[in-house]
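Ticket #4471: structure export looks truncated?
Reporter: QA, pipeline team
Priority: medium

Steps to reproduce: submit the single chain below to the structure queue and open the exported record.
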Amino acid sequence: MKLLGSYINGNYHTAIYADGTKIRETEDDEFIADFPENIDVKITNQCDMGCPMCHEDSKPDGKHGDIMNAKFIDTLRPYTELAIGGGNALAHPDLLPFLKKLRDKHIIANLTVNQTHFMQNKEFLMTLTKQKLIYGLGVSLNKASREFIDAIKCFDNAVIHVINGLITYGELEILADNDLKMLILGYKEFRRGKEFKARNPYIEGNQIGLKESLKDLIPRFKVVSFDNLAIEQLDVKSLMTEEQWNEFYMGDDGNFTMYIDMVTETFAKNSIAALDKRYALLDTIDDMFYIVKGER
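Actual output as written to the record:
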C-alpha cells in the first residue's frame, strides 16, 4: 500500500494509505487525540434533488458557505481528512479553488455526492481524482443498477453510501458480488428524516431485514463499513469478536471526529447534534475540538 502521510496526534501515531486504510498505534491503553483526524464538513445547503428524507433539509435555493475565508482551515494539520458534502457540494461555486487550497496544505479531501449528480458529473469527478484534489469519493445511492455499478467501478476509492431502512434487500442483491465498497449509514430521524419515517412504516421493516441479512451480505462486498449510528441501529458489534471490535472500531463521535457546518458557521460533535449543542465557529480547530471533546 502507498503511504499518503503520517502524523503524531496526542499519544498515538497515525498512518494513512492511498486505498483509504488508516492505522493507529500507541503504547498506552487508549488513544487520546489532541486534534480531530476526520472532520465532516458541510459546504452548502443548496441541492436540486428534494429528497424527502434529507436530514440537512437542503433546498434548491439553499445557501452556500463561505469556504474560502474560514480561518480554521489554516490551522488544520497535514493529512487531516475532510469529508466534504452538502447539499450538493458540486454546486458550490468555490469548490475547485477550495479543493486546491486543501491540496496545497496536504489536507486529504473526500467528497460525497448524490448518485444523480455523480452520473451527471463523472468526467469532472474523474478529473478531480486524477489531479489528487479528492482521494475518496462517496456516492449516495438512489437506485441500484448495472449502469451505476459500471460507472462507480471506474473510481478506485469510491464508496457507495446506503441508508439503513432505505436500502432494500433487492438493491443489495444487485450491488453484491461486484467487488464494491459500501458504507452503511444510520437512518437519521432529524429534520425531514423524522417526518419521512413517520409517514413510511416500511423503513422499520427494511431495517429489520438488513440486520438479519448483514452477516451473509458482508462477505459479498470488497469492504463494508458503518457510521456510528448504523453500528448502534444494526448492533454490528454482535457480529464481531472482542478482538475484531478492538481492532476495527474507530471510536465514538467526538473522540477523533467532529462536524462543521460552513453554511450556518457552526460546529458540533456530529451532524444530528441538537441546537443547544452547536457552537459558533472559532478561529482554530484545536479550540473547537476541545469543546467537542468536553461533551463526551
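Status: closed, not a bug. The export was complete when the record was re-opened. Leaving a note from the reviewer for reference: The chain is about 30% helix and 20% strand.
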